[in-house]
Design a protein that fits this description.
The structure holds two protein chains of two kinds. By secondary structure, chain A is mainly α. Chain A has helices at residues 2-14, 26-38, 55-69, 74-85, 100-153. The chains are: A mainly alpha, B alpha/beta.
């Protein structure tokens, strides 16, 4: 069992792409790691270029590395990639007219859900209130007197 | 009555969306290059590496840029279609030999025929990145001004030539 877990662990480890590069400046290295995790590999579309071993992902990692080495900023590199591959290359696309639906849809659905829940609760409560009123009307008559009597006498047990 | 209509409406809306989803091709990514100038390159020719070609050399004519490689399986399927287009002599076809070994590329053209007016080489895939290439073969249609007007990802079929490419090429050739 332990052996099996070890093997599984190793397999998971190796899913990280293999040509990790090292930049001299630790801040640049950090940028490299963030950027490669934000860019989508266009061949295997559900992987970042940091994860993917596709050839294109390797080329794009090289591109990011070289641009960082030339001292280009993260924003410039992101711009470079979107100019060529469109918003699709970004795991976190910028908020724009075209992508507004993508960003707003979850909020809209959440509000819609809350509205439905609110309506449902209100309906239930109204039904409950109506019920109580009905009961009060019947209580008004004989039962009311009976209760009063019992209360006046106090606890007889 | 309403009790039955609401679920039915919800079902119809869902069915329409899912139905549309079935028709979409998720691997087709819209190109940001449409109506933008073809990115610059100056690349060695496959058959004469000391000579270079750049998009500026092709200004004034409509041309196709076809990205291909000898390792690319779907390129093999596309190749006869390009050969037959080349025989009709309607449009200049430039090949971009993408991340390939020149020897293999030469062999490929020698055995399967050469539809390209010229092929240029991009062994490191840098021109590929500049053109947003992600799935070989890809075909760009570039107009007389040097603007990219159409891009197809994946192999071009005879049907694509008849229905999309030829009408577009003729229209672009009529432009001044």
């Amino acid at each position: 069992m332990k052996y099996l877990l070890c093997v599984l662990f190793l397999i998971c480890q190796s899913s990280y792409a293999l040509d990790a590069r090292q930049l001299a400046d630790p801040i640049q290295q950090e940028n490299y790691e963030t950027l490669t995790k934000e860019l989508r590999c266009l061949v295997c579309q559900n992987q970042t270029i940091a994860d993917s071993n596709a050839e294109l992902a390797g080329d794009l990692r090289r591109q990011v590395y070289e641009m960082l080495e030339q001292g280009r900023s993260n924003a410039e590199i992101i711009q470079f990639m979107t100019d060529r591959y469109g918003d699709f290359v970004l795991y976190k696309p910028a908020f724009r007219g075209k992508t507004a639906l993508l960003w707003l849809a979850p909020v809209v659905f959440l509000l819609l859900g809350l509205l439905i829940v609110y309506g449902f609760i209100r309906q239930k409560r109204q039904a409950l209130n109506a019920n109580i009123k009905d009961q009060q009307i019947t209580l008004d008559s004989e039962k009311q007197k009976k209760i009063r009597r019992l209360l006046d006498k106090g606890d007889l047990s | 009555m309403l009790k039955y209509i609401i679920p039915l409406l919800l079902f119809i809306v869902l069915a329409v969306f899912l139905g549309l989803g079935l028709k979409l091709n998720p691997s087709e990514i819209p190109s940001p290059f449409i109506n933008k100038p073809a990115p610059y390159f100056s690349a060695p020719k496959l058959n004469a590496p000391e000579e270079k070609l750049s998009p500026a050399d092709l200004k004034g004519q409509v041309w196709l840029l076809n990205v291909w490689a000898s390792w690319c399986v779907s390129c093999r399927g596309e190749h006869p279609v390009l050969n037959s287009l080349a025989q009709r002599n309607i449009v200049t076809i430039i090949g971009l030999n993408y991340k390939d070994d020149p020897v293999d590329a030469d062999k490929w053209l020698a055995t399967l025929g050469n539809p390209y007016n010229t092929s240029i080489t991009d062994q490191e895939g840098r021109i590929g990145i500049d053109y947003g290439v992600y799935g070989v073969p890809e075909t760009f249609v570039i107009d007389k001004q040097g603007l990219i007007r159409h891009k197809q990802t994946g192999p071009v079929s005879e049907q694509d030539i008849q229905n999309i490419l030829l009408p577009l090429i003729l229209k672009l050739q009529a432009e001044s």
